[in-house]
Amino acid sequence: MDWIINLFTNSESIAHIALLYSIVIAVGILLGKIKVGGISLGVTFVLFAGIVAGHIGFTAPTNILSFIQDFGLILFVFCIGLQVGPGFFESFKKGGVTLNLLSTSLVLLNVVVMFACYYIFFDTNDKTNLPMMVGTLYGAVTNTPGLGAANEALESVWKASNGAVPQIAAGYACAYPLGVLGIIGATIAVRFITGTKLEEEEEELNEEEGENIHTKPLQMHLKVDNTYLAGRTVKQINEFLNRDVVFSRLLHEGKVSIPSSNDVFQMGDEVLVVCAAVDAEAIKAFIGPEIAKTWEEDTSTQPLISKRIVITNPSMNGKELGKMHFSSVYGVTVTRVSRQGMDLFASRNYRFQVGDKILVVGATDNVNRIADLMGNSLKRLDAPNIATIFIGIIVGILFGSIPFTIPGMPVPLKLGIAGGPLIIAILIGRYGHRMKLNTYTTNSANMMLREIGLVLFLASVGVKAGAHFWDTVVEGDGLMYVMTGFLITIIPILIIGVIARMKFKFNYFTIMGMLAGTCTDPPALAYANSVCSREAPAIGYSTVYPLSMFLRIFTAQLIVLFCCG
After folding, report:
1. What confidence tens digit (pLDDT) does each residue in 179-200 have?
2. Are residues 521 and 183 in contact, defined by beta-carbon separation less than 8 angstroms?
């Protein structure tokens, strides 16, 4: 039996370290699936499993724990950046600007409430209290990357002058459970404060023409009834309309064809139009009335098919749809684009990415030719683009290590291993095609890498914090962290939620998604989805999530570097 005793006690052995992480992660994930009142802590329970392991002395060398912790953090934040990158800048368009401003205000209010609690409830002469409050802040808003960024920044400014680094994960662990409950509870409280009725909000969504009328494609069968159009080419009509519209088929003198840019409209012609739903009425008013009639195609002379084609050819990355000349060169029309399961209108300015699906209409031979051009090979998508990930990590670490000297700061500002890879991943996700980088990663692959990084980070932090956690909770300020964390959670949500509802008149379900996205809290989103049958919570969540995640990580570093040195 000596061998098994040695396996669990010899912390220097590779087998012991692998066993430690395997047990902590497996137990944490299994316990995290247990629901209380329909709510579970999810993967974050790995942190608590690690704390227990560290408390009983089941641990590993500090240098090993630190390496795995930091590598896990890098992998986690990079995959997040890669995922949100393509939609990061687009999230600021139209109504997204207001939502992101509200989200930014919520992030700043969290910081303000944290400092207020620090000055009211804690001894400011004790230097360890502020870092512990930073940990409490990120537990209160359930943001693990922020904890990692704060921890990493603390390592750079604390050791030189103050000795041992405070275990801020203890504050995080104290605040996290009530943080999850507080986000959902405060969101419910906003509903009652504003007198919102769920049935009315649901009805409001049902009355809207689609979840996003600006991008949702709409197909119409129109009859040309405007004398101005007689003798005009498709190109001239497109230029006059100055809207995103695709003429996918033209019926002239009983013959169906795919109109090119040089084809001419005549009175009485019938056209099949695909456009953004928001533009439908204007286009009908200009071209002519909508008619209920099915196409009678002469398949013997020109069989037309529609086919969804997957873009798997890396050379198509970043190509602009309007510059591909599908109609004039290839004799086909691209009517719709699907990205990550969402149907989008085929705008002329749309840039292709590997993994996109396009709906192509045309003669069989022409459509097949486009399929060959685009790749249309699902096998290519199965191969992960490992090179892009690690090239991005290299650049991210280099970028995060650049020192920025700011007057008044004890040490130069660095984005570190959390901020650097995050920013580079966002930029690669959005502009990687310009550097011939294939940034496509399947959702499942991205999720796997992200979760592996997260559990490695949480397990490491938990084991390191476990030795002092019990003293912190029982003999220290643990209960105070719980209370202040709860205040940090609910006060900003109540303020911003009420403003979003009363002043900006956002739909309550959109507000629920916005609040969940700002706190980067999937359980809150899951609750929102459970009470709403529409996509509004998910839209609100995805609109603010990229910027919120960036701000959470960045503000964590700023607070530590400016205030905890």
Report:
1. 888 898 899 999 999 999 888 8
2. yes
Range name among 106-120, 149-163, 174-188 with the lowest pLDDT average: 149-163
Q: Indicate the fold that domain 217-380 takes in CATH.
A: Alpha-Beta Plaits (3.30.70)
Task: Look at residue 342 and give its three-state secondary structure.
Answer: strand
Strand ranges inside 505-553, DSSP E: none
- 452-476 pLDDT, tens digit per residue, is 988 898 888 888 877 777 776 666 7
Measured on CA atoms in the order 473, 475, 476, 477, is the torsion positive or negative?
Answer: positive
Q: How many contiguous H segments (helices) and E segments (strands) does the chain have?
A: 20, 8
Q: For residues 297 and 33, what is the distance between their CA atoms, to the nearest angstrom?
A: 55
Q: Which of 512, 365, 352 is nearest to 433 (CA)?
A: 352
CB atoms near residue 215 (< 10 Å): 17
Q: Where in the chain is the domain with CATH 3.30.70.1450?
A: 217-380
Residue type, 488: I
Estimate to the nearest angstrom the gap between the alpha carbon of 378 and the chain centroid: 24
Give 125's contacts (C-beta < 8 A, 6+ positions apart).
Answer: none
Residue 71 burial class via C-beta count within 10 angstroms: exposed 0-12, middle 13-18, buried 19 and up: middle
Rounded CA separation 341/343 (Å): 7
Residue 90 in contact with residue 547, Cβ under 8 Å?
Answer: no
pLDDT for res 209: 41
